[in-house]
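re: ur question from yesterday

yeah so i grabbed the chain u mentioned. its 136 aa long if i counted rite. heres the sequnce exactly as i have it in my notes:
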Amino acid sequence: MGYHRSMTTKFGLVVVEMLILLTWSHTTTHLAAATVDCTFVTQLLSTCSAFIRYGSPDPFPGTPCCDAVSSLQTLIDSSESQGSVCRCLMSLIATYNPSSTALATLPGFCGVSLGFTIEPNTDCNLYDSLLSPYAC
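ran it thru and got these structure tokens back, copy pasting raw so excuse formatting
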């Protein structure tokens, strides 16, 4: 009888430890996913460089440029990193200032909504509050 109780207690401790590890892992992964590397965003949008710099050719759904913009939307939806992506795009606007209008029109041409307007005065900090309730 004592052996059975000891095994049950050990099993219960293992289950509790596993739950703690899973919770910690989920929270840590989720928090890490909320920050997007701007180099990654820039690389994604490199397929749109001709349009961003020269305003043509117009991108349309199914082109590599629009596929990249769709990937940004997926990234925002899957990692809840809207504020981070917004800051990356504002940085690109600062870099390509003469062509910031072209950058701002990309989501519309591609039929994608990023959940914020791409313009120099956008306050990306407003989108940080959209973090998951799991974030500490």
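noticed a couple things. Residues 50 and 56 are 7 Å apart (CA to CA). also The chain has a mean pLDDT of 74.
anyway ttyl
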